[in-house]
Amino acid sequence: MNSRTLAFNNMGLDPKNSANGPLRVWSFMLTFAFRNNSIGAFAPSPILLSMQIDILWLRKWFDTFNQQYFDGGLPTPRFHIGHSRTQLGTLSYKRKRGLMRTSLYDFALGMSNYYDQSEHQFQSVLLHEMIHLSIAASGLTDTAPHGVVFRGMMSRLNREGWHIHVTTSTRGMQKAFTGSERVIGQYLVLAIELADGRHFLSSVSPRHARALNERVRQASEVRQAAWYTTTDPWFADMPKVRSLRGRRVSAEVFANKTARMKPIAF
């Protein structure tokens, strides 16, 4: 892998002349790793076939881009697929204030399935949010939410073939047709076997999965529990729960369903 250490002034970005004011952490040299388009590297291709995404897609491309463009240095956030009309992607986090500094933690990266987009468009939105994550996780102070640091990283990635924008207008974008076969029904499933032999399957809200996982680990009546993802339409009519609730099933159904799902770990 070839990496390039990019000093901001080498990108033509002078914080002293910035309309947004001086960059407070100018002495920081940003190491930003890129792979050349060789074997094992992903080369962007703006194919315009529209689609929808799921959590598995989001995890896959986050990991791929993290290695390819960020040298594997980004922390893995919580992932969420929503249906926002106005925000194609979001990054949120919590702040912990100390005596000397404020640290950021509990990063969550979300993307919207409200509109049909090409995979290239979804990937460009994901990279936009990963730039925000890189700046936040490294402790850099930018001149604005999309300031000197952000725009420098964005320009570098766009020279690799991406189409990342500071803002993207949703005017004219086509709303996803939820009856289309292109739409992936993705479910996060918690499978629980109790000490008394009963079995439960729950379709869980991804936003609350980590909290539920902690509760399950502390529940003495739970013999074993496992997490899965699936596209099985059997879960389509189940509510996405936020607490320890689920559908009781027979041992046979439990074994059949879990055998067909993809296990995941937190």
Describe this entry's structure for a reader.
- By secondary structure, the protein is an alpha+beta fold.
- The chain is built from 5 helices and 12 strands.
- It starts with a strand and ends with a strand.
- The strands form 4 sheets. The chain has a 5-stranded antiparallel β-sheet. It has a 3-stranded mixed β-sheet with strand order 4-6-5.
- A hairpin with a 4-residue loop joins strand 8 and strand 9.
- 25% of the residues lie in helices and 24% in strands.
- CA radius of gyration: 21 Å
User: What is the succession of H and E elements?
Assistant: EEEHEEEEHHEEHEEHE
Strand order of the largest sheet: 11-9-8-10-12
Kindly name the structural category: alpha+beta
Largest sheet: 5 strands, antiparallel
The amount of helix comes to: 25-40%
Summed up, the helix count is 5
The dominant shape is globular
**Mean pLDDT, as a whole number?**
80
Strand content: 15-25%
β-strand number: 12
Runs in which pLDDT lies below 50 for 5 or more consecutive residues are 1-40, 179-183
For the record, give the distance between the C-alpha atoms at the N and C termini, rounded to a whole number: 29 Å
